[in-house]
């Protein structure tokens, strides 16, 4: 796939019997994928034109030109939709970035240690996270906040990451230790009544 195209949305299940589908957009404005003209599939062999779209919860119910029944809509399930990179508007603020520009960049600690590569920027509902995959190890996440990600240098291909300190996972005095049971009748200070 060409790097001059950007993944903008993914088609989900059919919605109703008149050719509508559920679309999961990837962007701040859920209806913005409608503004870029024809959308292409990953292989570039198919172009879809949005006929209508409306918000419904976390999805956008969408009708594409030429998709007029449930069977045709079901055939679209799972397709990724792309737009040309140059169709995206220029960003006004130097502190704004398209997520796609951060993918593959090197994540480094304040002391210059390489932490891994940025592989995704998911949002599971509590805010955007930066997924960092160290070489040969499992991914880890940091919040995409100014505190955790204070500097992004696209030209150098590096992102400064301040990994938040872990919370103390040791049990507190009033918490049962491994193998120890707690009296469910205990009041707030841990004494059984």
From TrEMBL:
Predominant cellular place of this UniProt entry's protein: cytoplasm
Q: Where in the cell is it found?
A: Cytoplasm
Q: Which GO terms describe its biological process?
A: ribosomal small subunit biogenesis; rRNA processing
A molecular function annotated in GO for this UniProt entry is: ribosome binding
Q: Which InterPro entries match?
A: PRC_barrel-like_sf (IPR011033), PRC_RimM (IPR056792), RimM (IPR011961), RimM_N (IPR002676), RimM_N_sf (IPR036976), Transl_B-barrel_sf (IPR009000)
Q: Where is the composition biased (Basic and acidic residues)?
A: 182-193
- In this chain, the stretch annotated as Disordered covers 163-193
The record places domain RimM N-terminal at 8-86
- Domain of life of the organism in this record? Bacteria
**Keywords assigned by UniProt?**
Chaperone, Cytoplasm, Ribosome biogenesis, rRNA processing
Q: Where is the composition biased (Acidic residues)?
A: 167-181
Q: Provide the Gene Ontology terms for cellular component.
A: cytoplasm; ribosome
List, for all copies, the residue spans of the domain called Ribosome maturation factor RimM PRC barrel.
100-165
Query: Coiled coil located at which positions?
Result: none
Q: What is known of its domains?
A: The PRC barrel domain binds ribosomal protein uS19.
Instruction: Give the protein's biological function.
Output: An accessory protein needed during the final step in the assembly of 30S ribosomal subunit, possibly for assembly of the head region. Essential for efficient processing of 16S rRNA. May be needed both before and after RbfA during the maturation of 16S rRNA. It has affinity for free ribosomal 30S subunits but not for 70S ribosomes.
For this protein, the record's HAMAP family field holds: Ribosome_mat_RimM
Subunit note:
Binds ribosomal protein uS19.
Q: Which family does it belong to?
A: Belongs to the RimM family.
What is the name attached to this protein's record? Ribosome maturation factor RimM
| Species for this entry | Stappia indica
- The primary gene name is rimM
